[in-house]
Design a protein that fits this description.
Low-confidence stretches of chain B: none
CATH architecture of chain B: Alpha-Beta Complex
Number of helices of chain A: 3
Number of domains of chain A: 1
Radius of gyration of chain B: 17 Å
Number of domains of chain B: 1
Strand order of the largest sheet of chain A: 2-1-5-3-4
Oligomer: heterodimer
Order of helices and strands of chain B: EHEEHEEEHEEHH
Helix content of chain A: 10-25%
CATH superfamily of chain B: Molybdopterin biosynthesis MoaE subunit
Largest sheet of chain A: 5 strands, mixed
Distance between the termini of chain A: 32 Å
Shape of chain B: globular
Structural class of chain B: alpha+beta
Strand content of chain A: 15-25%
Mean pLDDT of chain B: 92
Largest interface: A-B, 18 and 28 residues
Radius of gyration of chain A: 12 Å
Number of strands of chain A: 5
CATH topology of chain A: Ubiquitin-like (UB roll)
Shape of chain A: globular
Number of helices of chain B: 5
Helix content of chain B: 25-40%
CATH architecture of chain A: Roll
Mean pLDDT of chain A: 92
Chain lengths: 95, 161
């Protein structure tokens, strides 16, 4: 677990699935987001700066899906207020 | 009290299931049901190359998301029962992966609801397939297909969203 404590940001559970999980190297973590990360778009931009494995996992925006509190979200401007769990995963292949 | 359970039923499980048995149960003592449509998705062997599929899923979200889709279908079509079972974990060729079953007074509602549910499930249920090959070479994640995305378009005029 990385568990960086970066001050007053929201404490967030982040989950990764399928090849995004494999590229990052673990399935979930709990992390304090920097205070300026307030939207889905800002979150994704910040995630890519966290290291090579994150940049690699999230390099293709069209292949990254987001769920907030276990519901799909495709709005980059969506606020992270009241969000306690963010999941990142590739397009789904169930059924 | 004599009524069977109403509303969508969604089950996420590792175990295999018996489609015939579920159809029998769903239609027992339902004299108002004139139609039962079931779709079962099976694991192909891809021309003898596939040893197994591994289905990863987002456990916290899978049931909630399929229930959201099924609830929309249940509200839109006049259905009696709408049952979904989706498996996760290792699945061998020939085994079941998914079941959607709709019962109704008339066939049209049952056909359409089952079809809608499968189309949405393909692209919205948080499951990911990985192929394990018999020759032991690298395991690959299955790519999402544009065909599956396009399948959703036909529902936009029917049920919105």
């Amino acid at each position: 677990m990385l568990g960086k404590s970066s001050g007053s940001g929201l404490n967030m559970k982040i989950m990764y699935f399928a090849w995004i999980r494999e590229r990052i190297g673990y399935a979930n973590e709990e992390i304090a987001l920097p205070p300026e990360v307030k939207t889905v778009g800002a979150f994704l931009t910040w995630m890519k700066t966290r290291g090579e494995e994150f940049a690699y996992a999230l390099e293709n925006d069209t292949l990254v899906r987001v769920a907030l509190n276990q519901e799909h979200c495709n709005d980059l401007s969506h606020s992270l207020e009241n969000v306690s769990e963010i999941a990142l995963f590739p397009p789904m292949t169930g059924g | 009290m004599a009524d069977p359970i109403k509303g969508p039923i969604v089950t996420i499980q590792a175990e295999d299931f018996d489609t015939g048995q579920i159809i029998s149960q769903a239609t027992k003592d339902c004299s108002n049901v004139g139609a039962v449509v079931s779709f079962t998705g099976l694991c192909r062997d891809e021309g003898g190359k596939l040893a197994a599929l591994e289905l990863e899923h987002y456990a916290g979200m899978a049931k909630a998301e399929i229930t959201r889709i099924a609830t929309r279908a249940y509200a839109h079509w006049p259905l009696d029962q709408l049952i979904t079972i989706h498996r996760f974990g290792k699945i061998a060729p020939g085994e079941n992966i998914v079941l959607v079953l709709a019962t109704s007074s008339h066939r049209q509602a049952a056909f359409e609801a089952a079809s809608y549910l499968m189309d949405y499930l393909k692209t919205h249920a948080p499951f990911w397939k990985k192929e394990h090959l018999i020759d032991g070479t690298s395991s690959e994640w299955v790519d999402a297909t544009e065909k599956d995305d396009k399948a959703l378009n036909r529902w936009k005029d029917v049920i919105g969203e």
